[in-house]
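Please, structure for the following, as tokens.
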Amino acid sequence: MQMNTPPRSPRGSRGTIRLTRRGRIALIATGAVVAGTAVAVPLLSLGAGEPEKPTTLVIPEGWRASQVYGAVDKALELPAGTTKKSFTKANLKLPNDAEGNPEGYLFPSTYPLDEKATPEKLLSFMVDTANKKFNGAPIAAGAQRNAMNVYQAVTIASIVQAEAATKADMGKVARVIFNRLERGMPLQMDSTINYALGRSTLRTTAGDTRIDSPYNSYQRMGLPPTPIANPGEEALRAAINPTPGDWLYFVTVKPGDTRFTSDYGEHQRNVAEFNAHHKSARTKT
């Protein structure tokens, strides 16, 4: 998981959102998610006395819209694909920049399920919750302070959510993003490639980086066109309050060992160590 582009001379402005990096990716399991330091979160919470009837729906931080749709289908015992087809009928209150795509605005939380629950109602509840969180003074003012709008802040937060190995690293990951934006460097984040390919993996091949997609941050400059997941509040806070630093690169060599640096040569050495560690791990399995 490396970023292959050394620093270039600055171009563009802070108002022109441009980014970078390859790093740690969320690991997704059926019915649960493991992202950063988060532990597996049950998909459904069962009510006492009704072991077969869920009473709440848990949406973990970092889930993609596709996972949320599947969870709603499962919770409401609907045919697969029902929620995805019905979201256009939900009249969701999304920002204009979203162009009708709810990715990033299906806020991670626990939502009640009752006999009147429908995909449209649940999705509207999620988006309304996101709007309350995102459009309040802290997030909106923080976005403006960093010369971006709220939608761009949510997009950055979604990348932070996917890339940060721990919650403690979120502010540093956000700083790498902003530092690369200021220098006009490509994002080069594996998480955006994974989103384009509909997968989650810790390794990205050279072929992967050549795919034709607006989410290919190796080939395209700037932010992806939408968020790549639904971030939680900590990732949002990191996106508007990045940790001070001059880092341009980072890689999680092994669990608990994420290395941030501004030196491309040092980063390449860290990447080599990452590759060696994972090669050794594969040999032992």
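Residues 264-284 form the longest helix (21 residues). The chain has two domains: 39-134, 149-284.
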